[in-house]
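Submission sheet (multi-component)
Chains listed below:
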Amino acid sequence: MDKQMDLLQGTLDMLILKAVSLGPLHGYGVLLRIQQISDERLEIQQGSLYPALYRLEHQGLISSEWGESDNKRKAKFYRLTAPGRRQLQTETEKWNRMASLIASILRTTPEEI
Amino acid sequence: MRLFAQIRSWLRWIVNRQQLESGMEAELRFHLESYAEDLVRSGVPRPEAMRRARLEFGGIESHKDAMRASLGLRLWDELGADLRYGARQLRRNPGFTAVAVLTLALGIGANTAVFSVVNTVLLKPLPYAEPGRLVAVESMWTRGTPVPNPLCYPDFFDFRAQNRVFENLVTGRDTDSALTGVGTPVQLHGEMATWDLFSALGIQPELGRGFVQSEEAAGTHVVVLSHTLWQTQFGGDRGIVGRTITLDLKPYTVIGVAPPGFVYPVDEPDIQFWTTIAADHEAAPGNTPIAAQRGNNLLTAIGRLKRGISIEQARADLDVIARALAKQYPDTNTNSAGASVRPELETLVGDSRTPLLILFGAVGLVLLIACANIANLLLARTANREQETAVRTAMGASRGRVVRQMLTESLLLAVLGGAAGTLLAEYALGVVVPLGGHSIPRLAHASIDGNVLGFSLLLAFLTSIFFGLAPALHASKVDIAASLKEGSRGNTGKQDRIRAALVIAQITLGLVLVTGAGLLMASFLNLEKSDLGLKPDHLLTFWFSLPQSQYSTGQQVAFYDRLLERVRALPGVETAAGVWPLPLGGDSVTISFNIEERPSGPSNRPSANMALATPDYFLTAAIPLLRGRFFNDQDDLKAARVVIVNKAFADKFFPGEDVIGKRIASGATAPGEKGEILREIVGVVGNAKLYALDAEPLPIYYFPYKQLPWQPPVMMLRTSVPPQTLASAVRKEMAALDPLVPVFQVRTMEELLSTQVTEPRFHTVLLGCFAGMALLLTMVGLYGVMAYSVTRRTREIGLRIALGASRSTVLSMILKQALVLLAAGLALGLAASLAADRLLQSMLFGVSAVNLAVLGLSGLLVALTGLLAAYLPARRATKVDPMEALRYE
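Outcome: structure written.
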């Protein structure tokens, strides 16, 4: 359990957008990509992945297309759309602002007050 | 942007549902298999790998549910399920469903029918280009309270030349002409208009062209035919343009054919040709043409506002012109020192507006009463379905979910009712529209169109919420534990109060409608038996006109005498005479006069209705002579000028005096007469009404036709046989005198009377129907509540009877319960009626809106029908068998 972190509420969408921004992926591929780029430290509930993908596609942030997987099987590939790219950018900025804010609060020592 | 994407995605998956389901299945299977393969690759045995993959992935169906929810399809799916469930419920209770759908069909159908009338008459734009910029232009009568008043030609020409606010200013008046040279001569109904009529309205003729400016000048004879006339009289001949036709024995060049459906004026859809006002610029030698007579107010104009000009700006602009004219022509224009500019559509339908809106409101009340009935039915049903609701809630359905499911059922009912109602409305229109005849402009075109369908759909949605919400909310508050116990009756106390309130509201609204209908009926009866001042039975009237080009004025008078002689000799004719304007014929002419003893300046003179009559007119119409004498054949242009006045005239202008021998000088003069001509009053006759709807008879002064031979008056025959049977004999006599003169508008006096009361009859019948529906629905409502209450109290009643209560005690106990509801409803209803009936005042004839007799009778009617509705369940209560009742439940 140590090496794996629970996912913060609402961040899954952002991670999916990031994952597919690096290239078209099928659902299972999204899962592997996130685990890979987080050095296996993030474990995503497999079941919650698909509702999130469908929600993002419903909102027009990603689009999908049926294609062929590495093992020559029919699979559904997701790619980032233009609105998705803009969304990822604003979400990233928001996240960074928030993270640095929280970090600076947590860094605060008694002397600084 | 994102909303747009969502709607697109939503619609896509609703349409391609199958594809979505198989896609989800394939995608998830791919995921599981890929994962399993990865596990196999890491050394897990294959069967074990598949099992682990499934286990870790979790329930596929629940994931799919979440995926559907992500696409916003859950509401949709639940709606589908609710609809299927609701349909099953409705099928299971065919009695309930039939009653509810029928009630709604009545309510929605009546509303849809009335709305289609309101839509056609009041809301539809005028059938011209950019109708919003069209305004009605009139003069403003500025003596006393300002009222719009018709224009005269010279004022119109000044308005047209000097205004800076209109692109076009058009006027016209109707003109009837005989079309000859086409077989049987026919009388045509036409309109003469200023040259820019078609271009101002933005109408392109179907063939040929519209008028040009030079065609307004005297001596021009051009005509545009209506599409219908072109088809019927000229066989749709495309070579008609350029041909000459004969109107009133004068040659007219056909320059165009109007497109099919073109009407102008809008309230005269039967106009058959249009010509220019050229004829009004012509006159017999020595006379002033109508177009040059200032003060001869007979025109209304229609203006097209320049873009960006408001009605107020237009009015201000014309006011300046009118004031200048009043200074320049004090004799004729002092009292019209202003202008009236109103939206054309509003002016056209002005008088029909209030009554139609009142009918619309009334029919809305009927729908409310219908809704209350269905709400009551649903409440009774939710009581029976409490266990079902409790089970749903116990299984985890949220309160919102339960409400939604119940509302879906209501919606299903409303849509069924709405569909049936729309069919009903289509049928009702077929009955209602002929009832209104031509009394309401554009009514004949009322039909169910897109707007109306949208309205009834909206109505179905609104009503479903209206009657469904209370029962649904009520049902959602079920106490699970109590309800699941067998035979428990849940929260019935609260429900009883809702049901009672609904019934009281129904009685209140029902009474308002009944008193309203009662007032209109009382008014209509008053109208029917009001004294017209003449005997309308056995009277035949008909028109003809003699072209001035063929018949000089003297010849016209002689012709009239010869015709009178011939028709008098017809078997079945008692007397024959002529009069113009014809009473109840829809026309009237008001002309000012000077009283010899009290002369006044031109703008301060009194005025009254005038008429031309032949000697036998009063005898023929049965108008009594009160003093003096009737006209005789010697009252011609060689004799001293005389007039006869009616009693209203004598009372108004010579109060308390003997009018015989007094002399007046009228503005009406015979051709060739110059200056003020004094005419002696030789007789006083009874009052005869010009319009059936006039509350009081108006003052009229009569001229002998021979002393004012303006035009041959309308002929009137008193017959001893049914009058209409003489029509063909009259035509034959006319043809014998001159085969080129058509007889037209052959009508009995009773037909004319009926036409005049068409509109009040229309309103009375409609409101009467609505009141009847309201009464019926209220009775059903009260019956339903009482019957339900008796059923629920069977055990209690049985116990009372077993303990010795007599049947009559039980009967009065139940009736008392109904009486409380009735009394409350009646009290509220009487108060509401007093307030609401004031709205009807403008539609009433000789009846006050606050009418205690009508109010009392209406209250009694509602009370009696209410008691009857309560009596049936009460009697059933007395038949309760105590032994059975105690075993009940």
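Remark: The domain at 11-112 of chain A is CATH 1.10.10.10 (Arc Repressor Mutant, subunit A).
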